[in-house]
Design a protein that fits this description.
CATH class of the largest domain: Alpha Beta
CATH architecture of the largest domain: 3-Layer(aba) Sandwich
CATH superfamily of the largest domain: Response regulator
Helix content: 40-55%
Structural class: alpha/beta
Radius of gyration: 21 Å
Mean pLDDT: 87
Strand order of the largest sheet: 2-1-3-4-5-10
Low-confidence stretches: 55-65
Distance between the termini: 26 Å
Strand content: 15-25%
Length: 266
């Protein structure tokens, strides 16, 4: 669907409301009772589809300041916090080359970040993602998170491909996948389902319990901490291909390109 063909009916269909409801919200009608959740949903769809019926909507769709917000969950795990900062550093370096600066969204502070072109949510539970989305009109992109809402891109590691790569590397010997405990529950479930011999670690004490056997890692941080293990196979989860996928989704989201495939596996 091209930008010129988007109509108020398209917005209504995408938001699951009537055309009249969209019209009332656009025109700020206060004499009609509309829930706050519905109002936010319609405004999000207006923004995502780049529907610009008036100057207000145009302003929503053209907020370009070359800034990217990075949102994370609050954590007491030193390994998790280190992983979050490593991820932000890697993303910042990648996006800086493309002309974007990255700033950190304070943990658990759900408010509007209108200065950002988009918000990247890293390993975030679906509930927190939705709360942040309700407070913002900027596009949200989920990285290492399963949100399962077709309005938003989500970029995750292809666990089946990762397992196949490890199987090829280790042969029939078998292996243990060691990774930092995800905050996104569905991501944790998918990891366990695909690689049954998985150990989630939260702090440094957990590392001493790792068996001395063939180990698959996706975290460079853990690779340095487990360098004494005999056979470690590192397949970095934040690969160049994943960074490129995040940027492509970012461009599509900020340019309001209709989402045809929202679940990206790398």
């Amino acid at each position: 669907m091209s930008k010129n063909k988007i109509t108020i009916r398209d917005v209504a269909a995408e938001a699951g409301v009537s055309v009249a409801t969209v019209s009332y919200i656009i025109n700020k009608r206060t004499n009609v009772k509309i829930s706050e959740a519905t109002r936010k949903k319609v405004l999000q769809v207006i923004n995502l589809l780049n529907y610009s019926p008036n100057q207000v909507a145009k302003a929503l769709a053209s907020n370009k300041k070359s800034l990217l917000a990075f949102a994370i969950t609050d954590s007491v795990s030193p390994l998790k916090m280190a992983e979050q900062m490593f991820t932000m550093k890697t993303l910042s370096s990648f996006f800086h080359v493309k002309g974007y600066d990255v700033f950190l969204v304070p943990c658990n502070l759900i408010e509007k970040y209108g200065q950002a072109d988009a918000i990247i949510c890293y390993d975030m539970p679906a509930k927190e993602f939705k709360e942040l989305g309700d407070a913002n009109f900027s596009p949200l992109i989920a990285v290492d998170s399963y949100i399962n809402d077709p309005l938003f891109f989500q970029i995750n590691t292809d666990m089946a491909r990762l397992k196949a790569s490890a199987d090829e590397h280790f042969g029939n010997a078998g292996f243990t996948y060691v990774t930092i405990q995800p905050d996104n529950e569905e991501l944790a479930d998918i990891i366990k389902k695909e690689i049954k011999d998985t150990i989630f670690v939260k702090d440094y004490a957990d590392l001493s319990k790792i068996p001395d056997k063939d180990i698959l890692l996706t975290s460079p941080l853990l690779s340095g901490l487990l360098e004494d293990k005999k056979n470690v196979f590192l397949q970095t989860s934040l690969s160049y291909d994943k960074l490129k996928a995040v940027f492509e989704c970012f461009e599509n989201a900020t340019n309001r390109v209709p989402i045809e495939r929202h679940n990206i596996l790398v």
